[in-house]
Write a structure and sequence with these properties.
Layout: E1 14-15, H1 16-39, H2 47-65, E2 68-71, E3 75-81, E4 84-89, E5 93-96, H3 108-125, E6 137-139, E7 143-146, E8 150-153, E9 159-170, H4 173-178, H5 183-201, H6 218-233, E10 238-250, H7 252-291, H8 299-314
Helix pairs in contact: 1-2, 5-6, 7-8
């Protein structure tokens, strides 16, 4: 059974500058209270209670201070209180929220361990390590995923190399955080899977009549790739802004054979045009000779004339004709 999708809820938190003034006011007041107790001016007014209240205020102020956080433009923070999603802050600036909102990390040791694992995965894949964002901060900026070259089989079973680039951004922070384990890894994996599936749906080239091919219909293929990526990444709250192929070629083991086939097809296509043009010219020559009654030729000599003209018009090298100075019928 598929789990229900989470939806983002924008919320507003307190202005950080106002809360900072309140924090310093409470801190200064508590220090003055402690000084008065130490000087003896508060001995007549429940000194044990005042001293206990003053000491208790210091950890409270420390906890109060943990509620401050900043957001850059196009950055958000997902607010989680004791496992419950409370909303998302999307406004940049200096803010203060409930100090007990989850920071998105399990302590310093866990953060260091996650950073080490991130570096190890980046070294294995050859990609840049992901920038860690704590306090459940999610970047809303457009990002570029430049995929690696993949060796896949096209619709006809020919091995090809293909790569694509995708521009994406987080659209729903709640889905990105709660519906998938690691939305960046999810985007990378699904983009590779979508590209492999797309390559198997189209031929590299030389498709049937009006058939879309990878090489000849780049715009249509890119649109199909974008639609498939949107369908796959919608679960993670990710919007795909652009997707297109960056590399397309036959695999090295068949590249030479396919190159020779393309050359042969080009030669055949050129020959067809040459022969079609030569036949038209011979037909025009015979028709003009007959209409203007320049010479009367029987079928045998017409055949000889056609043969000579076809050799002259279709030959690759320069033709050196032999001029007959005698009669045509000897």
């Amino acid at each position: 059974m598929q789990a229900s999708l989470n939806k983002e809820r924008p919320v507003q938190v307190f202005n950080g500058w106002i809360m900072l003034v309140l924090f310093f006011a409470l801190l200064i007041g508590n220090i003055m209270l402690l000084v008065n107790i130490a000087s003896g001016s508060e001995r007549e007014v429940a000194p044990p209670l005042s001293f206990f209240f003053s000491i208790l205020m210091f950890p409270v102020l420390i906890i109060f201070m943990k509620g401050f956080f900043t957001l850059q433009p196009n950055e958000s923070r997902v607010l989680v209180l004791f496992g419950e999603y409370c909303g998302t802050v999307r406004n940049g600036g200096f803010h203060w929220g409930n100090p007990f909102y989850s920071n998105g990390s399990g302590g310093r040791a866990t953060a260091h361990l996650a950073a080490a694992v991130n570096q190890l995965e980046a070294a294995k894949s050859g990609m840049q390590p992901r920038r860690a964002l704590y306090r459940n901060k999610i970047s809303l900026r457009a990002r570029t995923l430049n995929g690696e070259k993949l060796k896949v089989n096209d619709k006809r079973g020919n091995p090809i190399e293909i790569a694509a680039v995708m521009i994406w951004r987080v659209q729903d922070t709640a889905q990105a955080v709660f519906d998938v384990d690691d939305y960046e890894l999810y985007v990378q994996t699904q983009s590779e899977s979508a590209l492999r599936h797309l390559a198997s749906q189209y031929s590299y080239d030389h498709g049937e009549e009006n058939e879309i091919t990878l090489r000849s219909n780049g715009a249509e293929v890119s649109a199909a790739l974008k639609n498939e990526l949107e369908e796959r990444l919608n679960r993670a709250g990710v919007a795909v802004e652009e997707a297109r192929l960056t590399h397309l070629a036959y695999a090295p083991e068949i590249a030479q054979a396919m190159l020779r086939r393309q050359q042969a097809e080009a030669v055949i296509a050129a020959r067809q045009k040459i022969v079609h043009g030569a036949v038209s010219m011979v037909e025009m020559a015979l028709r003009e000779l007959a209409e203007k009654q320049v010479v009367q030729l029987d079928d045998e000599r017409k055949a000889a004339m056609v043969s000579n003209l076809m050799v002259v018009l279709c030959g690759e090298s320069e033709v050196h004709p032999v001029v007959n100075t005698g009669t045509l019928y000897t």
